[in-house]
């Protein structure tokens, strides 16, 4: 009797497995997947990267495995492949530090064609588990539905941090964290009722980063590594719309300077060397030790200055946190000499590299198809185009993970219009990055129909929602009309 | 008297349908163009992720049928009328009696009057409909079970639709029930019963009539109808609507001037109409006004100035979301502007709808051709210095378009109108020679008059 039970159980179990396919023909070409999850290194804690097989066919067979072990297989008339979470978990655990394959067979005119295996790698390194970004429709001036969201990269869960669903409410921008930690963070809201909310270890304050006599308020921010100071650029930004052609818009600073905000005394620190009419300074970024402030600098412009002749160089200035004084600015990379322009400098957590965006002119690289990521080796001064991650379309805003082994960046490579978050592995020893991959979504077609753009992606180690009290205070303070 | 509720239900249905086909017909395309129901999990998820939003989902489902000339109106008339019938049937089921005051007729009449307002949310009707329907279904159960299930009903519907709807539904049922219990004793006297019923219904009808007439906004109707005709390129009707409009309204002037051009009367009749907003009667200068964002693209589209039309369409997308007009505009402009990948994303969204699917598939076929019937983008000179639009003032843009494309008659007539309305005679005369590119039967009298006046002034 027991023998029959085992036999029937085995029969039942095997009946549940999709039958393996015996291909009628093999081809040397790799199948095209959307998103492109080929030759990619995934972090070991990432959620299953569901994808769509974009080859034409009547039926599709997918097998995912490694070293003779099959972790997942699926035979379906649908081209979308959704990997169950538990199977992906088994795979990432078993293949951490190794390669795995994705084998795809497509039935065309009744015959199964097996494509060349796709090889991906699971890294032993995990990525910071949360990604914070702003979502908005790709408009120019108006806003209605806008929000800052937190995505759990180990699942598909998205949590709204703050949403603005009223045309009367103001535009939210620039969320910034200190060393990838949500306990020390800053959020900014524009407009009359706007202000900057600074949260430091449970203390939440709303401040106005604009003092009397200043033309502009705080815009782009960078936390000092010790969490006491925030460097801000104070910018006057204007949009210009192309009359013809595919490029819709140019955005340019008309003025910009740098200040440092002391979160303990709510005082502003600056210096005529970084605050004045002669130069435009923007995009501050601190070095690992907090003694150097990197930034981008261009000559001040007039109304007659053509937008395509504004070039930003990479500069640095020393900062003495104890005495709150600055040194003298030094040029790190004279990009203007090459008719190039720099934006978004970001120092790696080990302090050895500085990643920045390079475009042909200006600093609003998200509207520049030619903008690409570059890497400066701070040890030897070498600068290189990160061709392994760049595409023929926009690569722009980027941030490092807390370990420096991963980074996330915005790219418009899918269709040249919507920015999507891409994550790439980075080897600090060689300074070489892996092929980037789009942040996985539950629905593989998500990026084909989602009409909002992902803005300012930042990786964090702990969720903002961890401290509910702080989050509640942040929401209340941000949305209250009171200036303080 | 036994079937009076059926009679009333039929009368309500008939009344609503008549009004929807006649005086309120203009509201249906408006509502339909505000929302786009999509058959997708992602769309459903947006409503399920927030408690109390299911009513909106149902409302959007119903509203999509407003696309059809009759079906949507019939469905909505039926739903509104059922808001009367369900509580009455529920009351009958529970008490075996009718409410002689017919109080249940008040909610549908109230919603009917509210429907006149553009801000009316159809979800009120659909959510109440769901609640009444469920209550009626529960009333078919034994009484004891009905009362036991009331609390779970309230909690569940509160979670799905919002607490206000089941609360109102229960309140109406209770009031109807009490009225039936209390006043039905007078039903023994047939005359009193009929007289009372007629009196009540008369008061309701009179009240509704008064409120309906009081709330009716003819100017709003004319503007909406004008825009609807404009979308269908029925220019004579646009002129007709704008002519009937009493008072000053920039949007009315804007629509009328477009119709004047399209009917070939702009150089002749421009000053026969009040141009109360001066040059701003010709276009909507960008002021960052969210309300205006859905109208600004019309003029630029017709002028072939697609980058600017596209900018307005994107701003409208931000404010009004993924509505059918926003998506179709963005699809068309992006195809014509050589950005098929961008158009395709909007096409994929539009394909998830019921009534725009075919249209989306047509666009998909031509996405890479760059050709859209009726749209012609101003040519772009790659090697020339970038030029940026003046989003506040149409004048410089009209000169630019005329310089780039001397055969653009609309740009020419608008430029002439712009110079007339801004009283720039010298510039008018300087630009008048552009008229030679077009085959007018003779110099339009308005242009001739200004030319003569200018020449006299010079002498």
Task: Write a structural description.
The complex is a heterodimer of chains A (484) and B (459). Chain A has 484 residues and is mostly beta strands. Chain A has two domains: 21-122, Immunoglobulin-like (Sandwich); 130-479, 6 Propeller (Neuraminidase). Chain A has helices spanning 2-16, 85-95, 446-449, 468-479; strands spanning 25-26, 33-34, 41-42, 51-53, 59-66, 69-76, 80-81, 99-108, 111-114, 118-122, 130-136, 146-152, 158-164, 172-178, 181-189, 195-200, 203-207, 218-223, 229-241, 249-262, 267-269, 279-286, 292-299, 313-320, 325-326, 330-333, 341-347, 353-359, 372-377, 383-385, 395-400, 406-411, 420-427, 432-433, 437-438, 453-460. In chain A, strands 1, 3, 5, 6, 8, 9 and 10 form a seven-stranded mixed beta sheet that branches. In chain A, strands 22, 23, 24, 25 and 26 form a five-stranded antiparallel beta sheet that branches. In chain A, strands 31, 32, 33, 34 and 35 form a five-stranded antiparallel beta sheet that branches. In chain A, strand 29 and strand 30 (383-385) form a beta hairpin. Chain B has 459 residues and is an all-alpha fold. Chain B has a domain at 4-216. Chain B is 66% helix and 0% strand. Chain B contains 23 helices and no strands. Chain B has helices at 4-21, 27-34, 41-48, 54-63, 71-95, 106-114, 122-139, 143-161, 164-183, 190-215, 218-231, 235-244, 250-262, 266-269, 297-303, 306-320, 324-336, 340-350, 357-366, 394-404, 409-421, 425-431, 445-458. In chain B, helix 16 (306-320) runs antiparallel to helix 17 (324-336) and helix 17 packs antiparallel against helix 18. The longest helix of chain B is centred in the middle third of the chain and has 26 residues, at 190-215. The N and C termini of chain B lie far apart (89 Å). The A-B interface holds A 136-145, 167, 240-246, 248, 250, 306-308, 414-418, 443, 445-446, 448-451 and B 40-42, 288, 290, 293, 305, 307-308, 310-311, 314-315, 317-322, 337-339, 341-342, 344-346, 348-349, 352, 377-382, 385-389, 391, 397, 400, 404.
């Amino acid at each position: 009797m027991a023998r029959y039970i085992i036999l029937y159980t085995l029969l039942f179990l095997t009946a549940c497995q999709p039958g393996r396919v015996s291909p009628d023909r093999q081809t040397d070409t790799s199948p095209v997947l959307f998103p492109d999850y080929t030759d990619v290194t995934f972090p070991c804690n990432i959620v299953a990267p569901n994808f769509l097989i974009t080859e034409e066919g009547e039926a599709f067979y997918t097998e995912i495995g490694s070293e003779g072990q099959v972790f997942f297989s699926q035979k379906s008339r649908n081209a979308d492949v959704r990997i169950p979470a538990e199977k992906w978990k088994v795979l990432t655990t078993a293949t951490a530090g190794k390669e795995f394959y994705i084998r795809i067979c497509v039935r065309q005119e009744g015959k199964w064609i097996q494509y060349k295996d796709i090889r991906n790698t699971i890294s032993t390194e995990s990525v910071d588990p949360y990604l914070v970004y702003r979502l908005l429709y790709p408009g120019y001036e108006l806003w209605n539905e806008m929000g800052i969201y937190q995505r759990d990269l180990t699942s598909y869960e998205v949590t709204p941090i703050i949403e603005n669903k009223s045309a009367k409410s103001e535009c939210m921008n620039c969320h910034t964290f200190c060393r990838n930690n949500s306990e020390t963070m800053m959020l900014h809201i524009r407009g009359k009722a706007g202000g900057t909310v600074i949260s430091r270890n449970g203390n939440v304050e709303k401040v106005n980063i604009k003092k009397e006599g200043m033309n502009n308020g705080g815009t782009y921010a960078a936390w000092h590594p010790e969490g006491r100071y925030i460097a801000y650029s104070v910018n006057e930004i204007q949009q210009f719309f192309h009359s013809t052609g595919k490029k819709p818009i140019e955005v340019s600073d008309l003025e910009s300077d740098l200040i440092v905000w002391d979160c303990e005394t709510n005082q502003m620190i600056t210096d005529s060397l970084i605050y004045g009419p002669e130069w435009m300074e923007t995009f501050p970024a601190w070095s690992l030790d907090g003694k150097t402030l990197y930034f981008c600098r261009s000559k001040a412009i007039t109304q007659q200055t053509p937008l395509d002749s504004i070039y930003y160089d990479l500069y640095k200035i020393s900062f003495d946190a104890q005495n709150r004084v600055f040194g003298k600015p030094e040029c790190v990379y004279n990009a203007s000499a090459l008719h190039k322009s720099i934006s978004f400098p970001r120092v790696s957590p080990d302090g050895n590299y500085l990643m920045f965006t390079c475009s042909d002119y200006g600093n609003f690289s998200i509207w520049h198809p030619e903008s690409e990521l570059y890497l400066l080796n701070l040890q030897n001064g070498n600068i290189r185009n990160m061709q392994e991650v760049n595409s023929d379309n926009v690569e722009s805003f980027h941030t490092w993970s807390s370990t420096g082994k991963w980074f996330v960046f915005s790219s418009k490579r899918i269709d040249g219009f919507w920015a999507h978050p891409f994550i790439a592995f980075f080897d600090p020893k060689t300074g070489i990055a892996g092929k980037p991959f789009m942040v996985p979504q539950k629905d593989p077609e998500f990026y084909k129909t989602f009409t909002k753009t992902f803005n300012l992606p930042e990786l964090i180690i702990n969720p903002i929602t961890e401290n509910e009290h702080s989050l509640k205070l942040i929401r209340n303070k941000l949305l209250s009309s009171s200036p303080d | 008297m036994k079937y009076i509720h059926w009679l009333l239900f039929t009368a309500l249905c008939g009344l609503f349908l008549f009004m929807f086909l006649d005086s309120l017909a203009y509201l249906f395309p408006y509502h339909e163009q505000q929302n786009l129901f999509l058959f997708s999990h992602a769309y459903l998820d947006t409503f399920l992720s927030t408690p109390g939003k299911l009513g909106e989902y149902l409302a959007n489902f119903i509203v999509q049928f407003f696309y059809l000339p009759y079906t949507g109106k019939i469905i909505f008339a039926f739903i509104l009328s059922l808001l009367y019938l369900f509580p009455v049937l529920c009351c009958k089921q529970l008490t075996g009696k009718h409410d002689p005051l017919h109080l249940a007729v008040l909610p549908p009449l109230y919603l009917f009057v509210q429907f006149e307002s553009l801000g009316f949310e159809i979800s009120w009707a659909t959510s109440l409909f769901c609640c009444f329907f469920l209550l009626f279904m529960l009333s078919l159960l034994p009484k004891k079970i009905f009362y036991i299930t009331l609390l779970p009903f309230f909690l569940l519907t509160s979670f799905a639709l919002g607490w206000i709807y089941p609360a109102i539904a229960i309140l109406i049922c209770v009031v109807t029930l009490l009225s039936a219990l209390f006043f039905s004793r007078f039903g023994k006297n047939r005359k009193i019963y009929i007289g009372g019923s007629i009196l009540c219904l008369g008061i309701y009808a009179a009240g509704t009539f008064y409120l309906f007439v009081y709330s009716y906004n003819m100017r709003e109707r004319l503007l909406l109808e004008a825009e609807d005709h404009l979308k269908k390129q029925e220019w004579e009707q646009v002129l007709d609507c704008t002519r009937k409009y009493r008072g000053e309204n920039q949007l009315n002037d804007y629509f009328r001037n477009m119709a004047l051009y399209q009917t070939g009367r702009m150089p002749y009749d421009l000053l026969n109409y009040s141009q109360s907003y001066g040059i701003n009667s010709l276009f909507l200068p960008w002021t960052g006004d969210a309300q205006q964002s859905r109208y600004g693209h019309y003029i630029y589209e017709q002028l072939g100035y697609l980058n600017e039309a596209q900018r307005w369409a994107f701003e409208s997308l931000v404010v009004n979301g993924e509505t059918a007009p926003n998506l179709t505009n963005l699809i068309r402009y992006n195809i014509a502007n050589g950005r098929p990948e961008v158009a395709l994303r909007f096409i994929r969204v539009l394909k998830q709808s019921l009534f725009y699917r075919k249209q989306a598939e047509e666009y998909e076929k031509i996405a890479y051709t760059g050709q859209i019937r009726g749209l012609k983008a101003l040519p772009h000179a790659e090697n020339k210095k970038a030029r940026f639009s003046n989003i506040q003032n149409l004048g410089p843009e009209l000169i630019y378009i005329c310089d780039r494309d001397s055969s653009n008659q609309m740009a020419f007539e608008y430029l002439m109108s712009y110079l007339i309305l801004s009283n720039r005679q010298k510039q008018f005369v300087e630009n008048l020679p552009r008229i030679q590119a077009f085959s007018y039967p003779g110099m339009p009298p308005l242009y001739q008059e200004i030319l003569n006046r200018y020449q006299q002034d010079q002498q």
